[in-house]
Amino acid sequence: MKAAVLTAQGPPSVLQIQQGYPPPQRRPGEVLVRVAAASVNPVDVKTRSGVVPRLVTAIPRILGSDVAGVVEAADEGSPFRKGDRVFGCTGQHIFNSRYGTYAELVSASEDAFEKIPDGVGYEEAAAVPLAAMTAWQALEARMPLEGKAVLVHAGSGGVGTFAIQIAKALGARVTATCGPSNVALVTQTLGADVAVDYTKDRFDDVAPGPYDVIVDLIGGDYETRGVKLLKRRGKGEPGGHYTNLLTHGWNKKYGPGLGGAITLLSAARGTLLSALGLGPSYELVTIQAKASRGLQQVAALMAEGKVKPLIDRVLPLEQVAEAHAHSEGGHARGKIVLRVAEL
């Protein structure tokens, strides 16, 4: 099969297109999918660049966790049949598998997949799974969200665009931070009630809350400032909830080594204080790659027209290095999709 293979850690050029790469072998409980499209996630870039240590990264390997395509084979009794249009997050970034979705075939647990809603194309579907599931799992601690206040940092990024739409679809009032060029996008396209241009204003000054949920995709001092804006606990009231998505805000100030250590220590401190009841409700979200943990629910919202992925660009698989370079630049609006095959 054709695949984009990570041959070493380094710049985008280490991703090489190879023909005749050995296909994955489907195991019991898995679904073999012929890939139409995949998408690029930050974890792919971190794995390729070396931010994820070589010791925990199998090489050579095929990157990619998001996929949309057609079922080739499944177990007898599986909810999926040959020819079904499906999408899902294979969890390759979690399980350290050598077979990801930047290829013509991928095999993964059947609980990772959901049928693509009618009227949704493969490229659109491929932009959804990991980012949408991350957003859902970041919000679910305070669901139902009807009438609640939600703050989303990095509102124009992959996860942020879904977090805004999901929260709005579930009845929340949403504030989002973004750059000046994305204010209209965040409010008019995604539906946020308030957009804070981080180059002009400090969010804690102009949008002080209090909030039921804060979805932090930036970290650093955004966290230390943000936890102060959560709703206080009260009789019968759980108070606000802070979701840390293991961000890299401190890396910009201290570098990936020390910055990463500070991030982990801050997350450990917040989690411990929360568990002891000495601080606000705090969660370090580690994504569960199961369709039941957000993908099924978001698929239903997509079918109703309430959630739509924002796609920055679609590139052929052969331009995977360009896709990674653009993602690494940090200014993608929504998701970068790889077109693998015409199905």
TrEMBL record:
Gene Ontology molecular functions: quinone reductase (NADPH) activity; zinc ion binding
Domain annotation Enoyl reductase (ER): ranges: 10-338
Listed Gene3D superfamilies: Medium-chain alcohol dehydrogenases, catalytic domain (3.90.180.10), NAD(P)-binding Rossmann-like Domain (3.40.50.720)
InterPro entries: ADH-like_N, ER, GroES-like_sf, NAD(P)-bd_dom_sf, Quin_OxRdtase/zeta-crystal_CS, YIM1/Zinc_Alcohol_DH_Fams
Pfam families for the chain: ADH_N, ADH_zinc_N_2
Residues spanning the signal sequence: none
EC numbers for this chain: 1.6.5.5
Keyword entries, A-Z: Oxidoreductase
Source domain of life: Eukaryota
Protein name per the record: NADPH2:quinone reductase
Organism, scientific name: Monoraphidium neglectum
